[in-house]
Structure prediction request, 141 residues.
Amino acid sequence: MEKRLVLSKELMPLIIETLNHNDAVEITVTGNSMRPFLKHNVSRVVLTKEVDRIGKYDIILYETNSHAMVLHRVIKVSDPLKVMGDGLRRVEWVKPEQIKAVVKTIHHGHKTIDVRNKVYRFKVFVWVKLRFIRRVLLKIV
Prediction:
């Protein structure tokens, strides 16, 4: 069987429809805004529609004002949510109606990470606190 690369833009309506039927969806991450926790074309995430339980440090899939779909981390639970990519220093504000899904698990090769795992959450907590020196740290990682 031949593998075929399909742009997420083409698949996104199907992904959203599947999520709206309360099914989980696994996608491969593209882009570098969530480095070092998610790696371009390596990391896969399982998305669910459990958006009513979003908390601090969760990763959400949301639609931007320009209709792009983005995975970023919640750094403050408020209305709107304050979010940021792990590899970025700029924050964004996301309204509840923009949220399409939340990440449940992360896969790197054969390794699976439950995003509720305490060790993982501690690493995320430390990373968020190091926001102002991320550029230097990302050059090392």
